[in-house]
Fold each of these.
Amino acid sequence: MAQTQEETFKKMVAHCKEYGFVFPSSEIYDGLGAVYDYGQNGVELKNNIKRYWWEAMTLLHENIVGIDAAIFMHPTTWKASGHVDAFNDPLIDNRDSKKRYRADVLIEDQLGKIEDKIQKEVDKARKRFGDTFDEAMFRQTNPRVMEHQQHWNMLHERYSNAMNNNDLAELKQIILDEEIVCPISGTRNWTDVRQFNLMFSTEMGSTADGAMKIYLRPETAQGIFVNFLNVQKTGRMKIPFGIAQIGKAFRNEIVARQFVFRMREFEQMEMQFFVRPGEELKWFEHWKQFRLRWHKALGLGDEKYRFHDHEKLAHYANAATDIEFQMPFGFKEVEGIHSRTDFDLSQHAKFSGKKIEYFDPELNQSYTPYVIETSIGVDRMFLSVMCSAYKEEVLEGGDMRVVLMLPPVLAPTKVCVMPLVKKDGLPEKAREIVDMLKFDFKTSYDEKDSIGKRYRRQDAVGTPFCVTVDHDTLNDGCVTIRHRDTMEQERVKIEDLHHIIYKAVDVKNLYRKLVAADDNLA
Ligand code: GAP
């Protein structure tokens, strides 16, 4: 029987641990909730993702430069940014199970359940009517679907209003009216809904009196805003220009689930693009398209991406969208693109008392620049790559192989060199080939077990090429190269290996796609 997506997801998570991609943090002490460590293969894959992002920003754009700001920042930063007062999630506890939930997530799950009911009716009808099925008509006329849709509309409206008005009593009332039960205790014995700030805090300074409460940054963006003038002046940057940064961020997520999708310590790749006021929506559109192309160039499948425009905008934003990826648990946000107006720079000017403006020589005037932000989670990107790469294949003869069909550019190891046997000078020849390749490609060496088993091991970690050295190699200078996805093998000259591997794993292949589609790169 075919596996459900949930079962495949669980297996992928187990695979990540078994093959050195991701381990639970401090596992010998039973782990720490929603915190993970990347293993020997995971860190390579993650670094390749970061490199692809960093270079797509800073190599392909003359007017984007990088920084690496500290995680600790002056506490006033977070007053100015609004995080101290408003970076909250609505929390509710079940008195019987003592479990804590996000009230908004409970309601969104309820909305999801209604959507599932509608989808089930649609799927049933499609089966019944076959090719003649008109889904739009069915949705408009089927009484059961109409009833569910009405329920969904009513609930969605109540929920949006409660969230927009920050009405915690109404959120609780919705949970009661919808008869939402705790998944653990099965009861409706709920506390009131409270706001919970997501920032972690600690103290800086040695004495209790002199210590200052500081926060672990919940986003990397503020490190860019507070350095706007430093970078603009020292780099003699002219608007429009961008500042890119990759770094850790921390959020005390209440509902942490779905593996590395929602973590308490995670990594972001953010770029703030500073533009003239009034030109922000043009740049917003530009960055939407560029970022989607960046994702699609990896070849995970164009149909797996969609934009989700925000209906409810933060008070400082005048446009916002998410790039969502089709995870096994539905379309989920991987990246956010936000038009943040001049909110952040103005707030920092106000709280610091410093003038944060740009003199535009073409307009001969000073202004506070507007900002377009692109913000992507490294870990979510890692997860989307893993979810689409993990495959279980039944081979001729009934054997099963688990293979990670990773984009070769991102694969942790590009090539594994194997002597057919551990004698007759084959290991020495194989080592020579490793030495020839290792300056350009992450190369491994394996001489243990049968060739078949060694191929499987490399499939499981996504290595695109295996190179086998046999007795003929010593005479004809040729080796067998085996391609991961097709399992095809070809006999090639040792001196051609470099070119064959390079053609497949060169990140410039992706950059060319990005640039070709956009001759007018900012
Ligand atoms: N500076 C804007 C900002 O931080 P966000 O939508 O809160 O915006 C941006 O976060 C991205 O960071 C998300 O699209 C997601 O990929 C990632 N992210 C946010 N919270 C996360 C978490 N708890 N675990 C993993 N990734 C997270």
Note: Residues 219, 221, 251, 253, 262-263, 266, 268, 270, 333-336, 373, 375-377, 379-380 surround glycyl-adenosine-5'-phosphate (CB under 6 Å).
Amino acid sequence: MKPFHNFINGAFVATGKTYDNRNPATNAVIGQVHEAGQAEVDAAVAAARAALKGEWGRMSVVARARMLHAVANEIDRRFDDFLAAELADTGKPRALAAHIDIPRGADNFRIFADIVKNVPTESFRMTTPDGGTAVSYAVRSPLGVVGVICPWNLPLLLMTWKVGPALACGNTVIVKPSEETPATATLLGEVMNAVGVPKGVYQVLHGFGPGSAGEFITRHPGVNGITFTGETRTGEAIMAAAAKGVRPVSFELGGKNAGVVFADADFDQAVAGIMRSAFENCGQVCLGTERVYVQRPIFDQFVAALKAKAEALTLGGPDMPGVGLGPLISKEHKAKVLSYYAKAKAEGATVVTGGGEPVMSGEWAGGHFVQPTLWTGLPESSAVIREEIFGPCCHIAPFDTEEQAIALANATDYGLATTIWTQNLGCAHRVAAAIEVGLCWVNSWFLRDLRTAFGGAKASGIGREGGVHSLEFYTELRNVMIKL
Ligand code: NAD
């Protein structure tokens, strides 16, 4: 049984208080995770504060960037280890993790290492009231010790999306991976030691949220800011903890994203795009589409095309031949998703396909699989249309006019992402301007340039990360005014 230890001050630390780590594709116990308590959090914060004053704090930006490139190269070198760890933790299809999760885990270090070497700063010369001269300039300093609280859906990718810029800016980090996916964060500790990242710069504490490592990190006065990806309600709890000491937060939260398909869209492209955005990673993507609005002339044809493709998906573990849909992350999450399947039926949905549990055999029999599911016919007030489900399912409804499509897409508390499918450039621009989200894709989905701003509007987040935008959170901008 593999132990997952905490990584504190450059060393792997057991605590004796453990919980099971399970493979979601089989439900087999694959490891024991050592839960961190207040003592481990205190130790990690002390080490992180010491590192800020040590070699790391004195390192030139060029040397730091070189070190982060070395981290990325070491992830590449240990690609198979990271892939195996991510597959065992999440059960997702091998090709998905091999093409997205692990490569992005390495790239997240490279992009921010390069950006910090080229950050512009401002300076002004001014005439003072007494006729003299003054010069002002701005410098960025690290925020300090950053708490990084992560979800389970893209464990390495989303964690390094925060750790990369935080370290590039000269901070130290204390990472709390999801209790469901401890493996790749732990493995990254080995990488940090291998390339010589000083002790205390990158640390990992395992555990849960309330009453455990998550809460202890966010409440600790020695933590200068918290960056978090996860559910909106968890964000509210973390924000309350961060209020003590008025510490900054950066939040990437939940979504209830709309896909808007106009009748003039490239039909096959739109079907393929909506399929991916609804079912990739078994629907466990914050940017995924759970509400689809299709213009009436193509509605029936579109629903039929999605149904055929959803029914053609092969369910199974990472190495099932032709696998298109993996398991949900846990027994609890499966129960949550199935409760929405039941609600949809109770509220009178037309179940186009799916709506229940598949019969799985062999090694996948115990896995947390659900059927890919499509519904039509629900009122917009339905819980299935209002609440984030985070499973392989979506509701499809017709619309008539552009104005109606915009109103439907915006009728949600969330504001993370939208996809628009049309060949009409004017329509694409008008809808993109009117949609209340942080991310808007036209004729595409999950197309990312890591230099661009990423984040959500409304209840989907606070702040933007990505490219130079990450510097706004991970540094303090200080202005220095000199009277000459
Ligand atoms: P979650 O909020 O349940 O947990 C996320 C992390 O927060 C875990 O590490 C958990 O242990 C920790 N946590 C829970 N309560 C805490 C507390 N009180 N204090 C401190 N830490 C606490 O989310 P999840 O189920 O792991 O992930 C799924 C959610 O994440 C979905 O809502 C999804 O939309 C969202 N998400 C958003 C983005 C984005 O970029 N906007 C990306 C991925 C996932």
Note: Residues 257-449 form a domain with the Aldehyde Dehydrogenase; Chain A, domain 2 fold (CATH 3.40.309.10).
